[in-house]
Amino acid sequence: EHTDYGVLTILKQDECGGLQVKNRDNHWIDAPPVPESFVINIGDMLEKMTAGLYRSTPHRVRITHGDRDRLSFPFFFDPAFDATVAPVKLPASLMDAAHIERSNDGYVRWDGARVEDFAGTYRDYLLPKVSKVFPDLAKSTA
Fold first, then answer.
1. How far lies 51's CA from each of 47, 86, 115, 128, 130, in Å?
2. Which residues, in sequence order, are CB contacts of 116 under 8 Å at separation 6+?
3. Which of these, 111, 142, 112, 103, lies nearest to 124 by C-alpha position?
4. Taking the alpha carbons of 45, 49, 51, 56 in that order, is the dihedral positive or negative?
5. Which residues, listed in sequence order, are joined to residue 13 by a DSSP beta bridge?
6. 12 vs 106: CA distance, rounded Å
7. In sequence order, which ranges of 21-112 are alpha helices (DSSP H)?
8. Do 140 and 130 meet the contact criterion of CB atoms below 8 Å apart?
9. CB of 2 within 8 A of CB of 59?
10. Phi, psi (5° rounding) for residue 41?
11. CA distance to 58, 61, 62, per residue, from 49 (Å)
């Protein structure tokens, strides 16, 4: 289970499927391939920029066809590495509605983090997360 770190991910998946997303009731639901379509995932930075109005999409892949490879083609729309990521000004009516909904839903991110609490550049956000999987990456970008 994970969320994408950037703003948006546009994903083309093959007919194998296996993609699942977590809904607001904390249940996994299938996101089966739809011919001639794309899956759009909201990323952590859009969650940050909208102060949580739009939440990043927890997702995972389950192997459904063990006899063949699954192919997916993501396009990650991310901020510049040194861009400071901050909330954008949204209409008060949207923010009020989001605050009421969020305060009542018991939402907890998969990693326990609160994206709204992050302050800094995209690099500051991304490197600690990615370096858990690729420890040498942080060293090579210093």
1. 6, 9, 8, 21, 23
2. 47, 48, 51, 52, 87
3. 142
4. negative
5. 72
6. 32
7. 44-49, 92-103
8. no
9. yes
10. -105, 135
11. 17, 27, 30
- Write phi, then psi, for 72 (nearest 5 degrees): -140, 150
Name 12's Cβ contacts closer than 8 Å, sequence gap at least 6. Answer: 38, 39, 72, 73
Asked if 2 contacts 132 with a C-beta cutoff of 8 angstroms, the reply is: no
Q: Are 28 and 86 in contact (CB under 8 A)?
A: no
What's the pTM? 0.83
Output the six-digit token pair for 48: 């940050």
Closest CA to 11 of 64, 53, 73, 86: 73
Over residues 31-86, the pLDDT tens digits come to: 988 999 999 999 999 999 988 888 898 999 887 766 777 778 899 999 999 999 99
Sign of the dihedral defined by the CA atoms of residues 39, 43, 46, 47, in that order = positive
